[in-house]
Amino acid sequence: MRNNNIDIIGVQIDFGASRKGVAMGPLAIRYAGIKPGLENLGYMVRDKGDIIPPEEGMSLRHMINYEQINATNKELYGRVYETLEDGHFPLVLGGDHSLAAGSISAVSKFYEEKGPIGIIWIDAHGDWNSEKTTETGNMHGMPFSAVCGYGPDGMVDFGQKPCFVPTAHCVQVGGHDFDPAEAERMKEAGMNVFPIRDVDTRGMYEVMKDAIRIAGEGTVGIHLSFDVDAITPEYAPGTGTPVSNGITAREAFLAVEMLAESGKLISMDLVEVNPILDERNKTGKLASDLIQSAMGKVDY
Asked: Among residues 26, 85, 182, 292, which is most buried (max CB within 10 A)?
């Protein structure tokens, strides 16, 4: 059943990434018309503004800027949980992908008594590193592992006793730039992975049918975490970690359109839009359009 109330929550964070600029991603997506676009679809939209990370904090060699990231995620956890208590749909705009540790933790905890949630993670990267396997120390490569209970623990523990998401209901779609140790961890944890080769050989329609089944059956609903670097740079140049030969814009739209049709989407992140690297807000506009399609917009 459609939730007609949406809360937009921006997170101006780029401490999890090696390149600066994604902190301005929420502004770019707003500038591209996300709020009026959703309102034109009949939604009541509250823009709850942006979370501003602390300017200073501790850092470790294998978890760079961890104190600022964890503080930001703690605040995001509270805002998303509050949105869910109000009966609204949380739409989180990033910012780098480290923010998913806060947003997903809140959604999973909120629904804990009703059952597990599922996750569909559309991304060129696995984001399944820990502080022990990371090659860079950049924490935007760790949140998927963290919300599933495979660390770093501090990334999701805000004193609330985390409710980890079972890997049986988690799906990675479109990945094609995994670190070797990261890929091994995903395999050992029983992650469901549909890499870019599956999209090429089976088609996005078949891949998403399976992804929605895995994340949606036996769960209270699906959280979508969408990193624009999953899309090949020709369509989405404004991102800090571009990887060639990703999914096409049309494949991205098909994925979110199928999620909208499923009626199972309960929350969403859209991350890693970097206006500094963009071309006339091309990626910001694409992000806005993808969100609207995920919320039911149909182009005839």
From this structure: 26
